[in-house]
Design brief:
Layout lengths: L12 H19 L2 E2 H8 L3 H13 L3 E5 L10 E5 L5 E7 L3 E8 L4 E8 L5 H19 L7 E5 L2 E3 L4 E5 L4 E4 L1 H9 L5 E5 H12 L9 E6 L3 E7 L2 E3 L30 H4 L1 H11 L4 H5 L3 H9 L3 H25 L3 E5 L6 H15 L9 E4 L6 H14 L8
Parallel strand pairs: 4-7, 7-11, 12-15, 15-16
Antiparallel strand pairs: 1-3, 2-3, 4-5, 5-6, 8-9, 9-10, 12-13, 13-14
Helix pairs in contact: 1-3, 2-3, 4-5, 6-13, 8-11, 10-11, 11-12
């Protein structure tokens, strides 16, 4: 076993107990069902300490005991699991076209979700309406209390102050979203707001199912733009101005297509959903009015139905993705690149071209070591990420890496 940056520590008794509690709770979350004996072996804590902390977690209704039937002679062992159906969080993902809201349990699973049109021009009124809709959803699900509300936004966010610094696709700048949320939910309500790609990376870290644990990876969110969440040694990288991971605006072609940021040749002008739709419309000779009616899902469905133009378009998107990913690998040196977005539905089309370019462009044979794959998250990663912003507080963000 390997303990990561959060080890069993000594010092102030209350601090030690809180850290040990978090470590034990995360072991149960990662390994359930797991016994007290196994926890003691993994942590090096004595059995009485483990039993005392487990008893408190049971009393808090965060975990429960389960008798494991092995069929052997003697007493069946008692295993521990997370207790679901007791603690819930609210999650909101705000995108330029549609906003999704949901109620999640502490394992990241959602009881239900709803979708509403995003009203960018009146942000205060829109965010207040999000709270109202979340309350209605809670009432319908008979959820009496939320541990907190997490919000992911397509833009640069200051998590500490819960302010949206700038969200170009929403038209928001300097928007104090946290203030609006607290006005509607109460000053004591736990509120977390972050960039949608960073939240997605957090969701992958906490809930991703890939058969192994990655502590160093980049989550690429392919949508209207290209965003990224960077995880280093099991921690989300934010940057001094909370703007890390803006890879969508690295220059792919000097003097290339004009980007919304004002520069030319940005990566997202070639590999985003917008770019894919534009290439499709051009090859299909669609006029401007018809082009505006096309969604990325339309192009995906067309490709899955066998349309050669759509397949050609996605192969080109794969090539452009590969060009940018090669630069990301050189800059970050990750174990894995995880990709989210609707284009993962045509992974069999984009993957080959993407890998070919990465192999050509990445130095020192590094491309052979970096795994590139689509997200395993069953729902919209940005929404699960919003939930994870609050859920990690319940586990105190002390995570044991096994």
């Amino acid at each position: 076993m390997k303990l990561g940056s959060h080890k069993i520590i000594s010092g102030n008794a209350r601090v030690v107990r809180n850290v040990n509690r978090s470590v034990i709770l995360n072991i149960i979350r990662d390994m359930e069902p797991v016994s007290r004996v196994q926890i003691a072996k993994l942590t090096g804590l004595n059995k009485s300490t483990v039993s005392s902390i487990v008893a408190a977690l049971v009393a808090d209704e965060l975990i429960y005991e389960e008798e494991s039937r092995h069929g052997n002679v003697g007493r069946n062992p008692i295993s521990l699991r997370l207790k679901l159906g007791k603690h819930f969080v609210g999650a909101v993902n705000i995108d330029s076209a549609r906003t999704i809201l949901g109620i999640a349990d502490i394992d990241g699973s959602f009881r239900d979700t709803i979708s509403i049109a995003t009203k960018c021009d009146e942000p205060e009124r829109f965010v207040a309406n999000c709270v109202t809709e979340l309350s209605r959803l809670s009432d319908r699900l008979r959820v009496e209390h939320l541990e907190g509300i997490g919000v992911s936004v397509a833009g640069i966010v200051e998590p500490g102050s819960a302010k949206v610094t700038i969200a170009p696709n929403l038209g928001w700048e300097g928007f104090d979203i946290g203030k609006v949320l607290h006005e509607r939910c109460g000053s004591d309500c736990v509120i977390h707001v972050d960039n949608d790609s960073k939240a997605s990376a957090l969701a992958e870290l906490w809930f991703g199912k890939h058969g192994r644990t990655y502590s160093n990876f980049v989550f690429l969110s392919i949508g209207r733009g290209i965003g990224a969440g960077i995880v280093v040694e099991g921690k989300l990288l934010t940057g001094h101005y909370h703007a890390s991971g803006e890879f969508g605006h690295i220059t792919l072609f000097d003097g290339g297509n004009l980007c919304s940021c004002g520069n030319r040749g940005c990566w997202e002008e070639y590999a985003s959903d917008r770019a894919t739709i534009a290439r499709y419309a051009n090859l299909k000779h669609l006029n401007e009015a018809a082009s505006r009616q096309i969604s990325i899902q339309d192009v995906v469905d067309s490709a899955l139905a066998g349309d050669e133009v759509s397949r050609e378009v996605f192969a080109e998107t794969g090539r452009f993705l590969g060009l940018g990913i090669a630069n990301v690998i050189k800059a970050i040196d990750p174990e894995a690149i995880i990709i989210g977005g609707k284009i993962t539905q045509v992974w069999h089309i984009i993957h080959q071209k993407m890998i070919e370019v990465v192999h050509q462009r990445t130095l020192f044979g590094k491309q052979k070591d970096v795994t590139i794959f689509p997200t395993s998250l069953p729902l919209r990663p940005e929404l699960q990420g919003a939930a994870a912003l609050v859920i990690k507080d319940l586990f105190s963000d002390y995570k044991i890496i096994l």
